[in-house]
Structure formats: C-alpha cells, structure tokens
C-alpha cells in the first residue's frame, strides 16, 4: 500500500506543487489537501493518513496547533476535530527558526524540514516519518543538540525516575539512538538482531513516556545520558 499523505499549506500554488511532487512517487499517494490548520485536523480525522505534511504559518489554526491536535491521544474535541488518528506529522516550513523547531517537536511532530530541501529529500522524509522514525533538517540539528546540552548544564537536573526503570541493555540502546545510529547500526554495535533492537527501542519509548526517536534524543541530551 502506498503511503497516504495530506498536504496542508495556505498557499494554493505551493500546496499543489508539493502534492504533485509527492504524488509522482510510486509509493506515495496524496489523499487530500488543506488550506489551513483546522481543515488539516478535520481531514486527518476523515482520511486517517500515514503522514500530514504541515506548514507552520496558516490562518484559522496554525500548523503547530494542528499538529498538536492530530498527534494527540485524546478523543475528538467538542468542535468535531478528530484527534488520536495515529497520523505522523512532517513540518515543512520556509522559516529556519529555533522556536518553530522546539514547538513542533513539543507538539508531537516526527519531522522538521525546510521548503528549500531537494525533492528527493522531501520524499525520503515522508517515508522516514511514515515508518515511525524521526527526521530533522541538517541545518537545525547541530543547533538543537548544542542548545539542549547548554540547557542541561545550566539546569543540572537529575535524571527522571523513569530512567532507572531501563535495563542496562536498554540504556545502551538509548545512548546509541542519541548518537544517531539506526536500528541496523545499533544491532551491529551491540551484536544483536535488528528485531531485538527494535523491541528495545519500543520499550524505551514506553518506559520514558516518549513519542518517537526524536524525543528519545532530546531526553538523552537533556538528562546527561550522552
């Protein structure tokens, strides 16, 4: 089955262009388009796509609030906006601003990419978040990690109690996830099967109450795991 996608952008020409570029890939199917965040939330509830490609600055409801509603585990709210769809969100924006990155990740986005990225990168990003992995634009990754490390040093906070619930092997896997290794690379490093690594990652996310690998990386840097 192709990856089902909704494209949300308030500029019709940009929206149509992104949709056409994605639809041209054999393994991606654009099932709907939204002109604002509120429509994106409604369409996500209606179509339950694998991925919503979401702009940030939109009328009626911005992309960050729409992301928060789409990725929420709560039931539909009183306005009829469906939530808890299991849909992943890839934020695609013109603005390389740190506050957008933090807000997008905090809202539950699985990826953050700039609109000047090559077409192949956009398609690859959709595939990445659709399979449950996370992705950040290279231009913001180093700044994000550096800022997280600085905040950790300033706060000097202790690791959350949940971290102590990890087994030694799970702690090893978390450290390697934070270093950016894929499941295959972690399996090779720890001499495990890739399926075993995938199981460990799932347990780590569950025990720490995290949504995806991006949040695991943030957790690891904020709490001195790496």
Could you walk me through the main structural features you see in this protein, from its secondary elements to its overall organization?
This protein is α/β, with parallel strands linked by helices and 226 residues long. It has 2 domains: 3-142, 3-Layer(aba) Sandwich (Rossmann fold), CATH 3.40.50; 153-222, Arc Repressor Mutant, subunit A (Orthogonal Bundle), CATH 1.10.10.10. The chain contains 10 helices and 6 strands; from the N terminus they run E-H-E-H-E-H-E-H-E-H-E-H-H-H-H-H. The chain has a 6-stranded parallel sheet, with helices on both faces. Helix 4 (98-107) links the parallel strand 4 (88-93) and strand 5 (111-114). The termini are far apart. Residues 74-84 have low confidence and may be disordered. It comes from Nocardiopsis endophytica. The modification 4-aspartylphosphate is found at residue 55. Keywords: DNA-binding, Phosphoprotein, Transcription, Transcription regulation.
Task: Compile the SSE list and pairings.
Layout: E1 3-8, H1 12-23, E2 28-34, H2 37-47, E3 51-54, H3 63-71, E4 88-93, H4 98-107, E5 111-114, H5 119-130, E6 135-136, H6 138-155, H7 168-178, H8 183-190, H9 194-208, H10 213-222
Parallel strand pairs: 1-2, 1-3, 3-4, 4-5, 5-6
Helix pairs in contact: 2-3, 3-4, 7-9, 7-10, 8-9
Protein name: Response regulator transcription factor
Domain HTH luxR-type: 159-224
Modified residues (4-aspartylphosphate): 55
